[in-house]
Amino acid sequence: MPKHQATSEIEAKNGAISEALARIEAVLSAGPVDGLKTHALATKARIGINSLDRDTADEALDELTAISPEPTELVLMKSAYERAFVIQTNPADFENLPVESSETSQEQENLMASLDDADDWDFFRLLQTADELLAHGFYRECTDLLRDRVSFQSTNPALDTLCDACLRGHLGPLAKEINDALSPQVKESVFGWRLTSTDWVLVDFSV
Length: 207
Description:
Elements lengths: L2 H11 L3 H13 L4 H17 L3 H13 L4 H16 L19 H9 L8 H14 L2 H8 L10 H13 L2 H10 L2 H4 L2 H7 L11
Helix pairs in contact: 1-2, 1-3, 2-3, 3-4, 3-5, 4-5, 5-6, 5-7, 7-8, 7-9, 8-9
């Protein structure tokens, strides 16, 4: 991802959404080549989705669809869009909903199908997909995607996502495996404490 677009995403996450979008719009107004335009539009879409600005997200996704970006990129965008805007529950109707549903949407099915190409992804896309899987509750799939691609020597976003999936999915044996592999520095950090403070991580599953 070009540096200025990564800067814009960080800026937006820190609350400077208007400034971040203005930077992206400046790039798009300059008439960038197709590859750079795709990156800029993807950044704009993510900012719109993360800030719950549906008009911005719609505008960026419409343009992305028109220029036919890489399929996986669009699958991730649509999955995140659905999570932000489509799967919305009216609080007044909440009590009438089942506690859990086994149904999956088309976008969730597309997200799962995209995992067939995971071996060819760069790490940034891998981490984005893992975050989407975690958000949708596909904990086992999230851990399968990350477990052999994560460093246990220091804290990092991938390790954080992997451990979150283990804890939320109650994947005890894998969590214990990760805990055993953590470096002493990580075990002594707040991150390591959070993982090892969960009782079932310390259970001996070999018995």
